[in-house]
# Entry
Amino acid sequence: MNIPSFAIEEYFAKYEFTTPYLLCASDCESLTVGELLALAGRSLDDLGHLHLGYTESQGHPRLRQAIADRYPGVSPDQVVVLNAPEEGIYVTMRTLLEPGDEVVVMAPAYASLLQVAEHICGRDQTRLWPIQPTEQGWRVNLAHLENLVTPQTKMIIVNFPHNPTGCLPTYDELEAIVAIAEKQGCWLFWDEMYRGLELDGRETLPSAAAFYDRCLVLGGLSKVHGLPGLRSGWVIIQDEAVRGRFINWKHYTSICAAAPSEFLALVALSVQEQLISRSRRIIQENLLEAEPFFARWPELFTWRRPQAGSVALLGVNVPSATQFCQELIEQAGVLLLPGPHLGYDDHHVRLGLGRRNFATNLSHLETYLRENQ
Ligand SMILES: Cc1ncc(COP(=O)(O)O)c(C=O)c1O
# Structure
């Protein structure tokens, strides 16, 4: 059976490498291999000595230990290393979902979180839990979630900090989401790809992994650490039988992670504090550029400051955000991501805040607006 097109990834495949002024990337500023090794006090020679054989299918034990160290109460044998965070979404759903199962997915959602679930379970079995725009930014509605989840619900799928709104639950809200899953005994899949990028001095929420033994948590180095080219990610799975089934599914996708990625992921985790503060600093600096920009264009944009993460979802007061983005690409070389590619409406666009060239690229957008609005 065919699956709908992955609109975001198709859009990036088409425009990311041909449009000069990227303003919608979700990853933070990257590094070269040499810069990463130097930061960790390692040499290129260390990489040169790496043996390029198959790796262990669950992941290198030292890497699993370094990952487990990030999650209090999690042991290395509960970590499964992936060949890409994306693989974790596909394999988790293949492992736990069957046709006809009922699932609840937050909306909007990174497309695979919704579309793989829909593909397996059926569209009519998938209920959407919308994140809501409020005066205080994007917020969760727990009463609504509670109404959507029933004794038939097999899995709740969430992503916090949230791509694309930047919504971050409070500690009490996190507990409440877990309690809703626990009450029905359903699986909770928590995509924590942006965990660590809390903004404006907010504390990093504890990982949901520690709260509930039926919670599977996705993490990785693409966004927060600025290393998407490593394709390094992991899933924490407490249930031993489910972990075994997950690894079996992974044998059908990639078998094991790439040896250079595992090596460099271990190096990256040894300097993760530096990498994370670097990304946060870049985002905070970019927010200082973004806010006055949106204050200059109040009629055109509705700005809701993200609470965490590297992206924001902007309202745009135009007849079609898709058309607006197309004109920007063609006439200004600026790339924004239109709402419909995120499963959202055609009056919003995604803004990426994690890149060093943000201010320059924003100035290209502003020049275009001055000439055309
Ligand atoms: C919420 C979320 N989960 C998972 C992924 C997949 O990460 P990767 O592209 O590193 O596989 C992304 C990528 O944009 C994402 O935004």
Observations:
- Residues 26, 84-86, 110, 159, 163, 191, 193, 220, 222, 228 surround pyridoxal-5'-phosphate (CB under 6 Å).
